[in-house]
């Protein structure tokens, strides 16, 4: 088995690479290292089953040169910035990159793809926990819209060219190698001022968090059950917690006392930023029907992540943030 992992030097991608190598899969990583890091693959470099190529998924020649013998593609390359940014970046690095990849797969007769999608495709869902068949899907961010567009492209190729495709709609994945997100930001802010923590929004934003190893177990489970056509799977813990509780957990794990937590009030009804989904809680019964179970609930995942970051902070490996 030979697998291509796009974005394999990123947070989730690098953990997936380790899992595939451990299972004896020959792995080709293509990453432009715009957000991925060589250090993320430090434990895998030197493995004879691993080949790392620095390049962009939008490069047709690069894809065709490296696609020979690939049997399945794990597509994790993307612009990871969820907040408002340049819409063109999402189009180029999410939608266009996915199209170029699918075209290369078609030309090289590679028929299996597992895509890293996002819970943001649901927008403000009217059903909680939200199942995969909820609709209509109305993303409220350009990031979410780009992920949904990628799902639509993959679905069309599965039906037009007999691909096997699955989209994994991840909740907030947390754990080692992730240098984005609320937990990491809280630790950085508290390093800058251990007596005060400024939280974007009104504090009631409620979301699901999943430990990265649980997410990788889910990814592997979906891959093993990949079949004809297109399927979407929610990947999440089974509960959700408010950001106010996330703040408490980060403070507790840092051993801090008397921290004043200040809420900015947020925008558009208390969101942290424009495009922020205020409540996200996914239904994972479909994925559980394949035999997968998350080991950690949201609070446990957040606590583990906070503990990891505070350990790095004690070694001087995390820079403080001004609030």
Q: How would you describe this structure in keywords?
A:
alpha/beta, 323 residues, 19% strand, 3-stranded mixed sheet, UDP-galactose 4-epimerase, domain 1, 14 strands, Rossmann fold, 7-stranded parallel sheet
Walk me through what this model shows.
- This protein is 36% helix and 19% strand.
- It folds into two domains: 2-172 and 210-235, Rossmann fold (3-Layer(aba) Sandwich); 174-208 and 239-278 and 297-314, UDP-galactose 4-epimerase, domain 1.
- The relative contact order is 0.14.
- The chain has helices at residues 11-22, 60-66, 87-108, 142-160, 182-192, 212-224, 243-253, 285-288, 298-314; strands at residues 2-6, 26-31, 50-54, 72-75, 112-118, 164-170, 172-174, 196-199, 206-207, 209-211, 229-235, 241-242, 260-263, 279-280.
- By secondary structure, it is α/β, with parallel strands linked by helices.
- The strands form four sheets. Strands 3-2-1-4-5-6-11 form a seven-stranded parallel sheet, sandwiched between helices. Strands 12-9-14 form a three-stranded mixed sheet.
- The mean pLDDT is 97.
- It has nine helices and 14 strands.
- It starts with a strand and ends in a 9-residue tail after the last helix.
